[in-house]
Amino acid sequence: MNFVAFEAPSGTDLEFLVLFAVILLGPIVFTRLGLPGLIGVLLGGFAIGPHGLGLIAAGNETVPALGHFGLLYLMFVAGLELDLHMLKAYRGTAVMLGLLAFVIPFAIGLCVGFFALGWSVPATCLLGALFSSHTLIVYPTLRDAGLGGNPAVASAVGATVLTDTLALSVLAVVAGTETASGSAAGVLIEIAIGLVVLVVVGWLVLPRVVDLVLRRSGADRVARYIMIVVALLFMATLAHVFGIEGIVGAFFAGLGLNRLVPNEGPSMEQVEFFGAAVFVPVFLVSIGLILDPSVMFRADTLGLAALICVGALGGKAIACWLAGALRGFSWRERAAMYALTAPQAAATLAATLVGFQIGLFGTTLVNAVLVLILVSIVVAALLTQKVVTWLPAQAGRSRPLGENVLVVAPSTGPSDAAVRAATLLARPDGGHSDVIITRAASEPRPAAATLRAVEMRAFRHGFEGRFRTTVGELQDAVANALLTGDPSLVIVDDPTFHASPSHVPVIVVQATPPGADGVRMILDDENGDGVSQEISRRLAGGTLRSIRFRRRSDEALA
Amino acid sequence: VLSFCAALIGFVRELDRRPGRGLMVAALLGAVVFATSGCSVEKDAAGPSFEPATPGTLTVATAFLPAPGFWQGVVHRDGFEAHLAAVLAERLGLDRVHVVHVPFAAIVRGDLGGADVALSQLTPTRERERQLDFTTPYLIDSPGILARRGVEAADAKTLRGLRWVVSRASTLTPIVMDAVRPSAAPLVVVDRTQALRVLRRGRADALLLDLPVALGLARAEAARFHVIGQIGDGEGLAVALPAGSRNAEIVDSEVRALAADRTIARLESRWLGNTDDVPLILTEG
Predict the structure, then answer these.
(1) For chain A, what percent of residues have pLDDT higher than 70?
(2) Mean pLDDT lowest among A153-157, A337-341, A452-456, B36-40
(3) Is the pLDDT of residue B16 over 60?
């Protein structure tokens, strides 16, 4: 008689266990080997997939379904992370590089696919889109090395908005025409209308609706995150209505919410956390399931991989060199542009997977593209290591005014005027705001409920940032902030505040006398009229129409 | 690749000195790319061109003729898999479909009787993948319970009390044993044909099949059979090709294309009906 009956593990629990084990261990092992963690997750997907240990079978629906959401999420984050301020600030060079970085690789892709490989027109166009897209994987390294303000680097960052939008538009047209059943002209008109609707809704309607909801219930962090996810899925669904791939809608959702969800803000932190921890790795694992070493290491696959590596990386090299030559950048700066535009990851993976799902690409090409991704990331990473030694760090780069707005408030919390001003000043630059509430050592610690009420009041004004309290004088808190130089602008919520001008602009909210919301600016000569006018313009463009502006440039320390 | 790199370096140098000449080098570079690539690969993006066993013909092996819903009509040109074979042939640039009858046991052993592909309600398994190459599944459905008329069951307990027949060749047999856990040992037969014979003779009450197959049989023999419910997770049905076939990649791509443009969904709706109406019976496994 059997008293215990052990069973072989199986089912969904086991699938999730191996899935998350791969997500955990893949990056740990591969970063120790000096390779990108992304490759570890991809290869982990292969290991547990039907071509590996078979722990996740070929007909499995759970992982691919989760992976599909991960793909939408990845493209959403790609749109959300793009720096629209850079595009605006360096629009001349950025637009030129963006167009060249799209047109040249796309043209090479067309020539390679059509003439050299003899592929069909849709497959060739998708190959062109695949060549032309890129992902700013090495930008954090360059930014941390103090090169964020270098015109070549900034232009390449701004150019990515244009390049990826064009590449995804091509993807939308190709995938739409391949999967629709109507006449070609009808399908193209439907897709064109769809793209216009996506741009209009993504740019005009979505940010307003999301802003409205966040103002009403944004103090609840869960509701805030879910609202962002709902916006992403709404745009993906809207894209499908017009026969456009959901990833295009997701990318437009990211672009639309770009300023509402600033890169350094707490909402972005949540978006990135869930993306990095679950959704994007699951997508990479779902790609890894398609990986087949018996296909990847075949001579024809490696030949194709070499060809697309040369085409994609060569196309980007030509574009960067041409744009750099036309703008008079040094060869080192052109190398920096190349390091930024060479890596093929998010949009390339998206285009490849869509091509695979609609039957336009076979497993040979998918495996060849994975080689391209690996090669491009390694090449860019190696080049970046050189670039940071070639180019001088730009210590005193001009930061966007609203990049990081700090509100320093007394123990009663920030006034509505201060919070509104912070939102109006930060949002045009896609920046975020933080609030420091100061209190004297003798004052009791504010109750959690009180702080919560203050936060809720702030979020009703579209505030996006973090709150913290500190013990000390308000003047000391401002002085510390100016000393560290972290904030790009400081708002002091105390009309009696006085200080001498520093390199960081300071504005003092004049809450008294009641009803006359005004601000006083403390600016040094370097900031001058330009900053003063920009602050005035931004505040006047919002709801603070009654604000009075007074210039003080030589205030003595109180 | 080497000639490309050399040309790239030359281009960069020339572009720095004389942009006009640099563009000429770029044109040369393009020519090098084509020359290099032209020798390397000769295939479509979706996979190598299909090479049929008989020129112009897609030869399809199937085990069950007729199979209600899947292969039906006098010359077996109607039904889900019959039409799937036809659209597949069209996409592969072939003029006609030739159907050959091959026993199920032979197909899963990897013997397609000289056919290019097998379309025979086949579920990919690890064991079968050693003998065959499978495409992406074209149908994913839960197992359905085909029962004799008059036999009813709405819960796991009643299911256990039924007299079951299972086939050795079926991938669904472990589900009967692990999820249904019949009170009496099931009657074991060789294949589906024998299992249906047992059911028709009343020696068993129920048989587990892929839901669309069960629905097709119930429609074809409505006086004898009906589908009492569906259980468990879905299994996929896929096109099978001989192991190592160079046609596997292109057929797989075409199956995905037919799923993406909803051709398969339309065929499923037309020939197999709606599976959502069949009640779900929760089991313990």
Answers:
(1) 92
(2) B36-40
(3) no
Distance CA B132, CA A102 (A): 43
pLDDT surpasses 60 at B5: no
A306 touches chain B (CB under 8 A): yes
Chain A residues lying within 8 Å of B46, measured CB to CB: 123, 359-362
Nearest 5°: phi and psi at A35?
Answer: -110, 155
Chain A residues with beta carbon closer than 8 angstroms to that of B29: 314, 318
Label the pairing between strands B143-148 and B225-230: antiparallel
Q: Kindly tell me the burial class for residue B23, based on how many C-beta atoms sit within 10 Å of its own C-beta (0-12, 13-18, 19 or more).
A: middle
Interface membership of B124 toward A (CB under 8 Å): yes
Does residue A379 register a pLDDT over 60? yes
Cβ contacts (< 8 Å) between A58 and chain B: which residues? 124, 129, 134, 136-137, 236, 238
Q: Is the ipTM of this complex over 0.85?
A: no
B22 shares contact with chain A (CB less than 8 Å): yes
Tokens of B275: 């599976």
Burial A354-365 (b: 16+ CB within 10 A, else e): bbbbbbbbbbbb
pTM: 0.79
Closest by CA position to B154, among listed B233, B228, B232, B234: B228
Segment A201-213, tens digit of pLDDT: 999 999 999 999 9
The one-letter code for the residue type at A28 is I
Alpha helices in B93-164 (DSSP H): 104-108, 126-129, 156-161
Q: How far apart are CA A335 and CA A322, in angstroms?
A: 12
- Of A197, A195, A223, A194, the C-alpha closest to A210 is A223
Amino acid at B112: L
pLDDT of residue A55: 85
B262 CB within 8 Å of a chain A CB? yes
From chain B, the residues in CB contact with A306 under 8 A are 1, 40
Separation in Å, CA of B245 to nearest CA in chain A: 13
Q: From residue A361, how far is each of A66, B126, B250, B264 by CA, in Å?
A: 22, 25, 9, 19
